[in-house]
Amino acid sequence: MKSLPFMKSIVMFLLVFFLHGTCRSETAKVVFPLTIDYPFLQSLFHQAAYREPGGVAIFRGDDSDCNKVILSEPRFSKQDDVLRFETRLEIFSGIPIFGACRFSSSWNGYLILYERPEIDPNTYRLSFVLENSAIEDENHMPAEVMETIWDLVRPSVLAYLSQVRIDLLPPVEELKSFLQPQFPQSSRELARQLVDTLASGDVHVNESGLQFELVSTIDRKYIEKQEEQPLTPLSVQEMDTFISMWENWDSFMVALLMSMLDHPLTEEERFTLQSTLLETRYLFVQELMNEQHDKDFVREQFIEVWQKLAPIFKKYFRQKPSDNPIRYISFFAAADALSVLDQLGPAFNIDISRAGLNRMIKLVSANPSITLAYKLEVDPDLRKLLGMSDPLPTHGVAFEGDEVILDPDLPDTETSSVDRLRQLLLLVFENLEAKPAFAGDKKQGADPGKLKEWLISGQPMDVYLEKVKEVVRAAAIDNLKKSKMPSAYHDVYKLSVMSTTWQESCFRQFKERKGKVSVLRSYNNTSIGLMQINERVWRGVYDLQHLSWDVRYNAKAGCEILDQYLVRYALPKMKKNTGIKIELVPQILYAMYNGGPREFTKFIQRNSKGSLYQSDKLFLEKHQWVMNEDWQKIQKCLGSR
Description:
Structural class: alpha+beta
Shape: elongated
Number of strands: 15
Strand content: 15-25%
Strand order of the largest sheet: 3-4-5-6-7-8
Number of helices: 19
């Protein structure tokens, strides 16, 4: 029997309401699940009971080493409604004569115990009450052991196993410490009730492990159904908080994914990690474009992501339960608790706090110094985890910021007084060690003059266009050399790259105005350069400065992204949907390039209904121009710049 789906097991423990006799105040129970999967239970039991060298428990029948029973390899599972405990049993018997065992014999099999788990409500110590026992041979067939030595030590073996206790207080205390910071100041009383009244409840034996109920008693008013409040525009301070919360969450998710780096992930699992990361980032970018923002956005993303990733994490953490099972149990308890609180409604008003996320990641990370810093640098390990090659090489110029002064010594009669003051200050600070922030501080050796070849002004349009097209064409060819893309798709891929460049930037990396060069940005200020690479979506995967200032690097990044979407997303899905023709591939790729992995299905749906987005139609127009080599149409966007 397969284990229950994640949310089904959560909902099963969600809420139980009750009235306290004739008491006037109405209360409710909130039930948090504390799950101990069998591999973790086995590891904890092993640590508690099998303490002899080699991880065994030894029981001797006399002072010699001839007559003894050795227990090893504990295993737990469910049988009917009880816990089935199995341990390997080795019985040795003989007669000690002059320091040696004579007339020795041995027997190998298994000791089976059927137990009922119990937890002490005061100490949170887990114990096992014996209900029945059996002996099985090595083939797990019923057997009888007649050796005198087993009869002699059997009572002490059963008594020893029955007195084993597993301390679950650490994950309970960890859960208490985790819960309170998730509540804003306005909900501190509710948080206090949840933590102060937390107590042990029932124990359930499931297919995958034991599940304990940790029960809090709160005022019923907190869970009464409330009307959903309409979304309202956020203030500047609220917006900063909203973005900061999401950045903490994104950093947490990356750190969580990185904990999987050394595990032998399947292609499907790696695909799930990659698509989940990209989808959450794309959704955040879309949320930023809304006039009203959902304050619960981060929490909702956490719950959705946890449902997708929990099975993968549990699978691999189970494979190394001896690392630190209590920490893993604490981690899953904290994540499950957020799912429970999310189901309770808006009155709980919980946030996903940085402190809480930081606490969680330290429970599963082998790196004690890990932090949730929102780092912008390329992370080779993240690329590796996402199934990508080594970081793209960087060779071109790169500057700090989005703007540089191309010719600071040249007068500009059209500049405003403010601009003239800025240029004057630039000259004053030119030889100083610290330059003002607006100066576009450049990396050592970078020369703004090298940007001129990538500006439309000062050269014929056809010369400029051919130069940029060659960069894009070369980037696509270089990418194909390392790609796993079937050769049948090479031509449609190269056409898609060129069409995407036209649609995204009209083959431009920069804008020039009054002696200043600035990076071409999207209307919502999230994507940059020739291929309009989204900075938040591809954080840690590409060098953001070189995306801004290095035309070739930007082109290579865009080509790599389109390759990823074709090879890892579109082609596998097209195998399951054989009705999709190759002619539709460029539009599918562009839809995902714009909106993330989810757009594959969404585009197929709207295309079949004849309800394409305006962006779909504009791309199709550009793609037809590229296929027809109708480059004169470029004047519609390039000629007016």
